[in-house]
Amino acid sequence: MEQLNFIMGLLIPGPLCPGKDFDVFLEPHIEELLDLWKVVPTLDALTNKSFDLHAAVIWCILDYPALSTLSGRVTRGYYVCVRCDKDPCSRRIRNKICYIGHRRFLPRDHPWRKKKWFDGKDEEHDKPEDFSSDELKKQLERVMDVRLGMHPQNKKRKRGENGQCWKLRSSLWDLPYWSSLKLRHNLDVMHIEKNICEYIVSTFLGIAGKTKDTINGRLDLEDMGIRKNLHLKRDGNSYSVPHAPYVLNKTQKLAFCEFFRSVKFLDGYVATCIIVDGCNLQGLKTHHCHILLQRILPAAIRGILHKDIYEAISELGNFFQKLCAKTLKIDVLHRMKDEIPIILCKLERIFPPPFFDVMLHLAVHLPDEAILRGPVQYG
Ligand SMILES: [Zn+2]
What distance in angstroms lies between residue 361's CA and the mean position of ligand 1's atoms? Predict the structure, then answer.
């Protein structure tokens, strides 16, 4: 299989995206794919000889919302992570579900498993498991009768009922080789980077409505009985919110601004407007976040924020930098697979629980995907 022989079919749903009914549009495409898998007598124009052509889908490339539409896998609630089938890391906190507890991915004898600073408890769980092929079959059988469209017989199903991770059996499962593929849907690394970058920047700058350092977040810390210095200070009917080390104060913000001007990132001045003064990250595009997370942010907070925060952010940036390299080495990827839970644990010690949206958790699965697929640009 040479890269020259790869063909990419591209589907871009418009503003009236059909949601799970998208599968209807996929059906004719599946019929063609089935034909391609059997045998297609084809003429080789160069040698003027005919040969039997077989073609297969190797994987799908999509962002996270599209992954849910196309695959039929649940991507909300407790079973939001498409790579964690059983016993996921999701946890109910004050007003949402968060994905913390990456100590589960550490070796059994790792000293951090016994440390209370993470969530006030020892960590006894192993990492989440995948379904066996039988379990997967059963999951899909349960949703065999889900009809597409506004069918009157459609019952509203509760999400995540009895560990049910599939809401629909996509027509892709009709392809005879689909169940044996190891990587069916790629996680979109750029999309993950963009989200993580926005969470970090908006929390550092305390951007209203976007920061993850919320009152509920502080209450979550109280519920877990950790980081007492960040708990709300109550005084009669009022309370005050103690300053957190991961939020920039006025002087730190000025130094942060100055850094963007000095590196001329996004034309320095524009960067300051968008990131620091503008207080909305609308102007920040995916490719900006890619550079920002990997190279600029760690350098921008160096010497400004506490050493532990700098260290965790720069290790995260470095992780994505290595992951996005044009050529990857298997041994490096195996090392990264061990490193990423440690980086996430370090972040868990710094940021409050609402910060840990599924996007941060997905990073834990990226080295595995790269091992199966190769460089990120192919996914
Ligand atoms: Zn997962």
Answer: 6
How far is ligand 1, taken at its centre, from the CA of residue 273, in Å?
Answer: 36
Q: Where are the domains of the chain?
A: 3-88+128-186, 189-378
Cα 82 to middle of ligand 1, angstroms? 6
CA 359 to chain centre: 3
**Residue 212 DSSP class:** S
Q: Residue 30 corresponds to which tokens in the numbers above?
A: 């599946």
- Cα 169 to middle of ligand 1, angstroms: 21
pLDDT of residue 305: 94
What does the block give as tokens for 348?
């868990």
Cα–Cα nearest to 357, from 17, 61, 64: 64
Ligand 1 centroid to residue 98 C-alpha, Å: 12
Going from the Cα of 124 to the center of ligand 1, the distance in angstroms, rounded, reads 17
Q: Is 355 within 8 Å of 102 (Cβ atoms)? A: no
- Gap from CA of 41 to ligand 1 centroid (Å): 42
- The letter for the amino acid at 84 is C
Ligand 1 centre distance from Cα of residue 338 (Å) = 15
Task: Give dist(CA 339, CA 342) in Å, integer.
Answer: 5
The pLDDT assigned to 25 comes to: 81
**Distance (Å) from CA 88 to ligand 1 centroid:** 7
Please give the pLDDT value at position 203: 93
pTM score:
0.90
- pLDDT tens track for 198-245: 999 989 988 888 899 999 999 999 999 999 999 999 988 899 999 999
| 86-126 confidence digits (pLDDT tens) | 999 999 999 899 999 999 999 999 999 998 889 889 999 99
Q: Which residues pair with 240 in a beta bridge?
A: 233
